[in-house]
Amino acid sequence: MLMDDVKEVLISQEKITERCRELGEEISRDYEGSVPVIIGLLKGSVPFMAELMKNITIDCETEYMAVSSYSGTESMGDVKIVKDLDRSIVSRDVLVVEDIVDTGKTLEKVKELLYSKGAHTVKVVALLDKPSRRITDISAEYVGFTIPDEFVIGFGLDFNQKYRNLPFVGVLKEEIYED
Ligand code: IMP
Ligand code: MG
User: Global pTM?
Assistant: First the structure.
């Protein structure tokens, strides 16, 4: 059973739903008058993007990109574009939706790329923030929850591509990634 691998539930589904409502309201207020391009980073952002966009009440467009840098529980440092955007973002206000900001390397690279494609502004909304692990100047303008330095899974976050389907954010048992 999937649940047997979970050490503890860190953030419940109810808390995530509630926080997405607040973030949606805040983003809708801040982007009033613009038609932002909201870009979800595959695959981790999918559940968060789905929950968040239901609460965005202004005109917006949604797009997806995929970048990769992680293997197991360690960042590989080198960020690769796996799926690029298929539409122009020239002069657009872009909001990147990410599951978690850890070292910040992924978002540093993604922001740089989006600006090089002509974006007018690039901001970030992240479900989770692990500031203790940061090695770049990157910070998300909108953060769902700030968490301690623990490896988390669920609500989109994976360990070796598994556990993304858990409806909450949880801590994985150490024995799962130690062997
Ligand atoms: P960064 O480039 O180090 O900021 O890493 C960001 C990416 O690493 C996220 O998009 C996640 O895919 C992954 N990541 C970082 N921390 C965790 C974690 O605790 N659990 C699962 N994935 C994580
Ligand atoms: Mg990711």
Answer: 0.94
pLDDT at 13: 98
pLDDT digits (tens, 9 = 90+) for 56-92: 999 999 999 999 875 556 555 578 889 999 999 999 9
Q: Is residue 175 part of a domain?
A: no
Nearest CA to ligand 1 atom 12: 44
Percentage of the chain exceeding pLDDT 90: 87
Q: Tell how far CA 88 is from the center of its chain.
A: 22
Closest CA to 149 of 90, 101, 80, 77: 101
Protein residue with its CA nearest to atom 5 in ligand 1: 102
* CB-proximal residues (5 Å) to ion ligand 2: 44
93 is catalytic: no
Domain presence at residue 56: yes
Asked, for residue 62, whether it belongs to a domain, the answer is yes
Q: Is residue 163 part of a domain?
A: no
Which atom from ligand 1 is nearest to the alpha carbon of 158? 21
Residue identifier of the C-alpha nearest atom 20 of ligand 1: 152
Any ligand 1 atom below 6 A from CB of 69: yes
pLDDT of 48 strictly over 90: yes
Calpha distance 3→7 (Å, rounded): 9
Strands (E), 43-151: 61-71, 74-83, 93-101, 121-129, 142-146
CATH number of the CATH domain containing 38 = 3.40.50.2020
